Amino acid sequence: MLTLHVAEYSPEAAVLIDGASVAAVGPYEKLTAAAPGARVRRWPGILLPGLLNPYAPELLESTYHPDPRESDTLGSAPITGERARQLLNSTPSRLGASARRGVQRMLAHGTVAVAGDLRTRTVADVVRRAGLAVGQRPPRLPGPPALSPTPLILMPPLAPGTPARFAVFDVATREDLVKQGASTCVATVIEGRMVHRSR
Q: What is the pTM of this model?
């Protein structure tokens, strides 16, 4: 089934997807004329190829993401340092569960790809199952590790035949995205699937 995604402030960069792949990229009017039967999803803000987060090991293997049921004792914010190591090593299943919650947080920040050498098969499997692409880590990282790192690393432009991975941010321009950060993400699509939506 064809689906056409268009964002309010980037109608010239609408994306037509067919299953898990990009079928076409271009002005909204041109794509609707070419595929009049496509389902249309309209978004606020701008549509971009999504972000690469280079801090996969730090955010998924060295950070503990609490289960909502643990909020009374652990809170909801990611936990780092020695406390995170204690929690992650306490039971065999905790690392994988934390990594899955961490990936969900990444998706909610427009992440469609990660980088960094993952040391554990458990976390590597979580990343693979989520459909996140694995990219090359930049030689220099400004730090610190964050869900919305500085600077933001944008993926290459979308093109027909490539995997349908992109994100929509509720900002008017790329400059606004840099200022406000990746928490402005309202939708993330990976291989044609809506993996995050806040609107």
A: 0.95
CA 41 from centre of chain: 18
Instruction: Please report, in angstroms and rounded to a whole number, the separation of the first and last CA atoms in the chain.
Output: 22
Output the pLDDT for position 138. Answer: 87
Per the DSSP assignment, residues forming a β-bridge with 42 are 6
* 20 close to 164: Cβ distance less than 8 angstroms: yes
Identify the pLDDT of residue 79. 96
Asked whether 123 and 95 are in contact (CB, 8 A), the reply is yes
Q: 102-141 burial, b for 16+ CB within 10 Å, e for fewer?
A: bbebbbbbbbbbbbbebeeebbbebbeebbbbebebeeee
pLDDT score of 120: 95
Within the chain, which residues score under 50 in pLDDT?
none
Q: Which residues contact 93 (CB under 8 A, 6 or more apart)?
A: none
